[in-house]
Amino acid sequence: MSFNQEIFKSFDSLYYWVKKGKFCGWDPYDALNSNSITKLCMGSPMLEILATQFNKYSIINLRPFLGVKKGIDVKGMSLFSQAFLKMYNITNDDKYKDDLLEGISFLKNKSLKSKYGYDCWAGHYYNYRSASKNILTPNIPDIITTSNVIKVAIDSSFIFERNDFKDMGMNAYEFLINSLLKKRENGDYYMMYKPSDGDKVVVNASAEGLNAICRIMSSSEKNNKMHEITEKITNFLLKSQKSDGSWIYSEYNGIIRNQVDFHQGFILDSLIEYLPFANNEQENDLINCIKKGAEFYRRNQFLDDGRCHFRYPQLYPIDIHNQAQGIITFSKLGFLNDEYLEFAKKIADWTIHNMQDNSGYFYYQNYKFFTNKTPHMRWGQAWMMLALATHLEQKYGKS
């Protein structure tokens, strides 16, 4: 069996597993989707954090016993939909077109426009208490989910010749620039993760917003305002890159959080997306930035066999989200040299053989001596479906 046949086989196995479950599943952060856990926490942020983290890292999946309800994740559906769009363009199989229509219709119904005045989306179907005590709910939109919906909405508008999908994507763009775009005292422009974040800078959030706007620019007539905004955000990302080629995760109140994981791939993907729009002054700096970031990503975060560090320099556990992002980013980095595309194949090969269950789904985390086989729908299945589709897209042609 050729490698590409193996990718198709892996995709099909995952596809039918996901379809059998009707996109409904668990998530690493879903502890508060249990009435029993919520009652035990008694509204205490600290207890909610502890419950969420315990649920996330438990080697045994206790969710069925703790009453953690499954759900359909909005962010996950945006990722599945992108994968279906790619597979439809590759295969011309109408089943993927039907799946895409189901996905984009679900996303359209989940828009928070009535609450915020613009189309925008919250990532999850449950309440989530982060380690910083911040709360995310199904009614708080975020830039990662909204940006991913924009991408699939714009691309779907051409598949279905539906102006309402394009209008939804354009309206969500207005949410990005009117509710999330901010200017720092030093003149840098960035995008907030969510509307209430204020001066908190999450670098990959700006990258995701940039990626979405570039997708609009790729399919629209030239818009000077969009070009100006993307140029400013790109300059911020270029300026934020460290000397070793990596980026920090966030900065807030003078505190810098270094978390080197799949978010590095998010940033590289966005800079690649912006490359066709770079002006002459930016182009050389942008290419050098991508090359430097790609070199760090490959040489520091990944082992030669295709395994990604959990959070560099910590190797274990091998996390499915990191593996999926590696496939996506190195597939896209193939334009620099064929070695990156070959390495994407190596990551996919290791992941399929070591983290895909015979039933089709992908495991959550691989430790040195054991494996956490919890089947997370968004974190594992949605990202891997998009990863496999992205790699096939590079082989058989982009949409």
Molecular structure report:
This protein is mainly alpha-helical. It folds into three domains: 1-30 and 302-399, no CATH class; 31-67, no CATH class; 111-301, Glycosyltransferase. It has 16 helices and ten strands. The chain has helices spanning 3-20, 35-41, 45-57, 63-66, 74-91, 94-109, 113-116, 143-160, 163-180, 203-218, 224-240, 263-274, 280-301, 320-332, 338-355, 377-396; strands at residues 128-129, 135-136, 181-183, 189-191, 201-202, 250-252, 255-257, 318-319, 365-366, 371-372. The strands form four sheets. Strands 5-6-7 form a three-stranded antiparallel β-sheet. It has a three-stranded antiparallel β-sheet with strand order 8-9-10. It has a two-stranded antiparallel sheet with strand order 1-2. A hairpin with a 5-residue loop joins β3 (181-183) and β4 (189-191). α5 packs parallel to α16 (377-396), α6 crosses α8 and α8 (143-160) runs parallel beside α10 (203-218). The longest helix has 22 residues, at 280-301. The model has no long low-confidence stretch (mean pLDDT 95).
Mean pLDDT level: 95
CATH class designation of the largest domain: Mainly Alpha
Query: What is the fold named in CATH at topology level of the largest domain?
Result: Glycosyltransferase
Into how many domains do the coordinates divide? 3
Structural class, judged by helices and strands? mainly alpha
How widely separated are the two ends?
26 Å
Number of strands: 10
Relative helix content:
55-70%
Order of helices and strands: HHHHHHHEEHHEEEHHEEHHEHHEEH
The major pleated sheet works out as: 3 strands, antiparallel
- Spatial order of the strands forming the largest sheet: 5-6-7
Unreliable stretches, pLDDT < 50, 5 or more residues? none
Please report which band the strand proportion falls in: under 5%, 5-15%, 15-25%, 25-35%, 35-45% or over 45%: 5-15%
CATH architecture of the largest domain: Alpha/alpha barrel
User: Based on the structure, what is the oligomeric state of the protein chains?
Assistant: single chain
Please report the number of helical segments: 16
Describe the global form. Answer: globular
Radius of gyration over all CA atoms, rounded:
20 Å
